[in-house]
Amino acid sequence: MGAPVVPAIALTLLAALAGALALAGQASLAAGAAFAAALGLLAALGVRMRRAAGAERESRAFAQAMERAADGDFSLRPGPASAPPLTALEGPFNTMADALASLIGELSEERAQLSSALDGMADGVLLVDRDYRVTLFNRAAGDLLAFDGSGAQALRDYELRELAARCRTSGEAERTELSLGAPRRTVSAAATPIGGASDGSALLTLRDLTAQRRLETTRREFVANVSHELRSPLASVKAMVETLEGGAAGDPAAAADFLARVNREVDRMTALVNDLLELSRIESGQAAPKREPVDAAGVAASVQADLERRIAEAGVSVAVERAGDTTVLGDAGQLHQVLLNLLDNALRFTPRGGEIAADVDGASRADAVTVRVRDDGPGVAAEHLPHLFERFYKADRSRRDQGTGLGLAIAKRAVEAHGGEIGVESAEGAGATFWFTIPR
Ligand SMILES: Nc1ncnc2c1ncn2[C@@H]1O[C@H](COP(=O)(O)OP(=O)(O)OP(=O)(O)O)[C@@H](O)[C@H]1O
Ligand SMILES: [Mg+2]
User: Which of 3, 9, 248, 365 measures 20 to 30 Å from 272, CA to CA?
Assistant: First the structure.
């Protein structure tokens, strides 16, 4: 800024000097020479001033390009410089700008790849600093910790803060298992110190074990249930065989009675094993249902016919009613099984003289046929309703010899394999209506 001021003062001084010489009336040669010299100097100074103004403009353009580069924009170039030292700087500046632009492009691409890889991970990953501020987190971690996506987050969970602090103190990776969020999720968490003791940051990884734990529990319960269901018939078979061995075989009447009871227990065990096989076949998807036109009302009538003897023995009435077109797309064998399980339950729970109705309704919905099996038995208490379709669930545990609690689980799997729904409506003491839908 100060440079143009000096030539301006010098110019004014020279002009004043030349004018003074002329006015003093001294030798005109000397005055003319001095005046010419002053004019020559003036012209030279004018050129230098223009140059200086140009150089200033170019320096400003350079400064602006550098400021923009500092902000990450490398597109602005200062333009051709007319004089040193800018001429010497122009080439290196452009080369540097090109190199930085491509380096930053590569870095942002890598960063984008890294962040999409992190977001694609099933495990939660997050970075916390010494003050438990979360400086980076992926989607899974955000979901597990219920971050609201409003930018700055703090690690609030006490156990996770403890874990981060522990790994900072020990300088080593630390692990723990904890519960997070609502609904509660079982999470295995690991913390690794990052950036040395002075930094105090920690990398946390969170693995959601809820589904795995649930599966383990289900498996354990399943084995326990199967063993339990098999133990009692096996124990009674053993006891009866021992009685027979102990002499009862010699008494034809007692022997016949014991053998008939052994036979019944063996039938129960066979039914249980068959149910288990059926269930595992449906669950493993091996028994993907056929999709062929089946008349659901026809299936209901054939189940009724199969149960004729039991219906007569139970002293109840069973009515199959139909409305509209009751044809569905499905697997006749599996639909038979579903209706058999529902009617079998209704028969088991309906007192002598009671009524059971199977409505096959093809009129209410265009896309599916609804089947309802209604009985006027004892019904189901509200607390049991949500569990009836679970494997081995029996509302009344005392009815040990009345089934294994697999019938409704099998029905549910089969209906769902058809893309339908199954449910129950009941109030204690007021009968039960089990219903299911099968798409057409
Ligand atoms: N119609 C019904 N009325 C009242 N309770 C019922 C009825 N149907 C089922 N339940 C209840 O639901 C439970 C589960 O039924 P599910 O058919 O799955 O098993 P189960 O009949 O006990 O045995 P399985 O069908 O394996 O021989 C029954 O034990 C019973 O407590
Ligand atoms: Mg049953």
Answer: 248
**CB of 377 closer than 6 angstroms to any ligand 1 atom:** yes
Mutate to test the pocket of ligand 1, among 278, 318, 388, 425 (most ligand atoms within 8 A of CB): 388
Smallest Cα–Cα separation from 326: which of 334, 318, 335? 335
Burial environment of residue 11 by CB neighbours within 10 A (0 to 12, 13 to 18, 19 or more): middle
For CA atoms 329, 330, 336, 339, give the dihedral sign: negative
pLDDT tens per residue across span 138-186: 999 999 998 876 667 888 899 999 999 999 999 999 999 999 888 889 9
Task: Look up the pTM and report it.
Answer: 0.61
Q: How many CB atoms lie within 10 A of CB 49?
A: 15
Give the per-residue SS3 of 188-244.
EEEEEEECHHHHCEEEEEEEECHHHHHHHHHHHHHHHHHHHHHHHHHHHHHHHHHHH
- Strand 317-324 to strand 355-362: parallel, antiparallel, or no bridges (unpaired)? parallel
Q: Give the C-alpha distances (Å, rounded to integers) separating 352 from 102, 186, 355, 367, 427.
A: 87, 49, 9, 37, 20
Report how far ligand 2's centroid is from the alpha carbon of 344 (Å). 6
Cβ atoms of 161 and 132 within 8 Å: the answer is: yes
Q: Of the ligands numbered here, which is closest to the C-alpha atom of 401?
A: 1
How far apart (Å, rounded) are the C-alpha atoms in residues 43 and 7? 11
Ligand 1 atom closest to Cα of 373? 1
Residues 153-158: contacts with CB under 8 Å, at least 24 apart: 155/126, 155/128, 155/204
**pLDDT (tens digit per residue) in 18-69:** 454 444 445 555 556 655 676 677 677 777 777 778 778 888 887 888 888 8
CA–centroid distance, 380 to ligand 2, in Å, is: 13
**Sign of the dihedral through C-alpha 406, 409, 414, 417:** negative
Could you tell me if 304 and 311 are in contact, meaning their C-beta atoms sit under 8 angstroms apart? yes
User: What is the dihedral sign for C-alpha 223, 225, 230, 232?
Assistant: positive
